[in-house]
Amino acid sequence: MRKGFGCLCVLLTGFLFFNPHVSATEPDVVDSLIYLKGVVVSANKIKVNRNSVPLSISVIERHEIESSSESALLPVLSQRVPGLFVTQKGITGFGVSEGSAGTVNIRGVGQGNKVLMLFDGQPQWAGLFGHSLPDTYVASDVERVEVIRGPGSLLYGSNAMGGVVNIITRQHNQEGRRTQARVMYGSYNTQKYMINNGYNIGRLSTYISLNHDRTDGHRADSKFYMTNGFGKVGYTFSDSYKAIADISLAKYKNHNPGKITAPIIDNIMDILRGTASLALENNWSKGSGAIRAFYNWGVHDINDGYNRGSEPRKFLFHSEDHNVGLLVYQSFRLFPGNSFTVGIDYKNWGGLARNDSIHGVREELVDKSVDETAGYLIMQQDLFDKLSLNGGVRYEHNSTFGGEWIPQAGITFRPIEGNAIKASLSKGFRSPNIREMYMFPPQNPDLKPESMMNYEVSVGQTFLDGDLFAEVTAFYIDGKDMIQTERFDGRPKNVNTGKFYNKGVEVDARYQLRTHFSLDMNYSYLHTNKALLAAPKHKFFVGATYTPGRFTVDVNVQSIFDLYINTTDKVKEDYTVLNAKVAYRLGTREKGLNLFVKGENLTATKYTINEGFPMPKAVFMGGIDLTF
After folding, report:
1. What is the DSSP letter of 78?
2. Taking the CA atoms of the chain, what radius of gyration do you get in angstroms?
3. pLDDT of residue 113
4. What phi, psi does 447 have (nearest 5°)?
5. Spatial separation of the C-alpha atoms in residues 166 and 151, rounded to whole Å
6. What is the DSSP letter of 72?
7. DSSP per residue, 452-483
8. CATH number of 2-627
9. 362 in Cβ contact with 389 (< 8 Å)
10. Distance (Å, whole) CA 628 – CA 621
11. Where are the domains of the chain?
């Protein structure tokens, strides 16, 4: 710990006093890759062109999120990111605990929180249970999303084993004020309300939003309510230094009706989630970096309910969890074409859980926390504007599991204009969470981290002066020490016995056919050596947008084949869903009124993603967007 603290002090000193003598406002000395299309920040923690890094990265922009009129973010990603699939169980709301949805799988890896969710590079998951928090990812607060399809453990550590979803939150950069409000109403008494406001004056910028969703649900006892508030403030001290602070609070109540074959009464989850962060960023011509402190927490009160004919439970489950940390990193560009990033992370996650009896008796289940300290280095060298070499290593020490080395290496070759050929190998790992080790059968305190190696190659090409883009990626995953539940002497127990391999192909294409007509398409094929939940063998999406004058018409189709919803009995599901939206705009996009109506599952297809939780048939919503 002393060595880690010393390294942290050195890095902080370098951050505060780093000065390459040239301001970031002089663009002639800045790496030209920053100004090319397709800039991403999730791969190296600095701005680089997507075609210069060897990782497979999908980017979902603000206009794609807004055109969906979704209040939740994850359904948008499930459609538009190849190889990514999200479980769902109803018209809105994912829930937690038994029967919950919102699991994110990338390339068949994701169950047990193997895909890391981030807010602006900061981890977002329940410190006690280890799972992500799908109901708190609100679309109105998102500027863009960068998805690393494959391990991101080099930069982000544990839980980034299968991939990374970096949610980059909104901030108001244009001068003046902009306010947006939305009201929606639809099937099953579903109501969605949203208002946000951005304000920028001089060096100060602010953004606040408020969302409220509620529905009666398409089944009895499946109500869902959520109110979410988000605020962000930024202050620019100079051309090189900026401070950003944000806070998000979500209060929601979810009713779980149980499987249709075994309904549950009074299975109600009452949850408060919050997250806050503070960052100081620097940006110079020869480097950039940040110091970020974050804290997210949750309070869960759950009535597990009872089956018909049984007695109501005499206790409630109560938990309080936290995930707190400090992230420090600094990048340097010492000579043309070169960049390297060095960073140190510290995280503490855990919490307490107990059963509260109606008689006032408390039964403690667990009260644990885990410390993680890590250091990493990633370097990239661009040669002759044709070749990029990328590699790095991370060492992470966990107070429970000890140390772990994580390597990554890759190469990108750009032989002709608009073309990129990539190849990489990377390691991903995940530390067991507190629930798997200490809570409820089949807990096992002797579990080891899971790990896997990912090998991939991709070819991307733009055509027709950039109007057409297509990319094909092939991958192979070799995993070990997977945590599985097995029976010993008739009792279940979590053990590190599982091995698996996944391999497949992903295709992503976009075509701007005319000024007012565009097409998006993605397809993924996945082969696994064992049955995996929520990992479809074939996933296909195609969407078309047509904007004649003031009208906008969006139509999309998603097809899923060979989706296991029960691996024990080998139950599979195939389905195709048709969605459409028509909107009419009065005024401009900056100031005006937008009227829209949308329909989901227009063919009323019967299908299930979570076994026992049939999805709703055709769902219709209408709404008004006002911007002023």
Report:
1. H
2. 24
3. 85
4. -65, 150
5. 13
6. B
7. EEEEEEEEEEEEGGGTEEEEEEEEEEEEEEEE
8. 2.40.170.20
9. no
10. 23
11. 2-627
